[in-house]
User: What shape does this take?
Amino acid sequence: MSENKVVFNKPNDTDDDSDDDTVCLGESFFMNDNYELTTFTFGSHVLELLCLQSASTDFDLTGQLVWPGARLLNEYISNNVEILQGCSAVELGSGIGITGILCGRFCREVVLTDHNDEVLKILKKNIALHESSDNPKSCAALSAEKLEWGNSDHLNQILEKHPEGFDLVLGADICFQQNSVPPLFDSVKELLSRRGKERCKFILAYVSRSKMMDVMVTKEAIQHGLQIHEVDGTRSVIANLEGVIYEITLQ
Ligand SMILES: C[S@@+](CC[C@H](N)C(=O)[O-])C[C@H]1O[C@@H](n2cnc3c(N)ncnc32)[C@H](O)[C@@H]1O
Assistant: This one.
């Protein structure tokens, strides 16, 4: 009985030519970048953005599509635009950019960030698409930057360009992997500390998928010296999951 072998990224110079049953799979095998132009409506605001309709095989490519947390945060923003008016904002884990780009309609400046290079490509495309679409409502300067949570070099590079820090830190559906929550709050704390308690807050759209994560988010915020409170009236069901908007500030 013959046995098929699967090899990822088989090197070109392999001398293992005898192995005819080896199937070689490059990285592109796991990558779907057939993005579709999709229309999203939040209140009176319509956005047309490129995204996937379902996830790629690679777990790290979560940012290629729009998550329920982004829908929750964008609804909240479109109903409370005064929170953003004239502000500078940085978004963490922007994915395709649906939240940061909507914020660009009200803020004066938005920096959209992600750690995944493939996601950054589509994020930059969507920013360019939005800027080229003849849209008089888009007034903010939008930019995309690489930011891995907890990576001080990445964060310092952003803060060098924005030494005054930001009025708002935003995050939609970014608490879903336990090991990334502590570094996420490290970066949040650094960003909030740049401005101080009254002058910067983190608005997090949290979608509950496990009790353990529900507890962890609150615990990590407190352990980082932050206070976290649920915004009244925001707890709702979205895509069959419970979501809520948290406001997080320095204590
Ligand atoms: C579940 S997706 C949410 C995307 C978008 N905010 C939304 O709601 O549609 C999580 C995003 O966070 C990014 N991400 C995950 N872990 C990260 C990390 N350690 N540092 C920075 N970004 C991360 C992913 O690349 C992805 O874009």
In short: The longest strand covers residues 241-250. The mean pLDDT is 90.
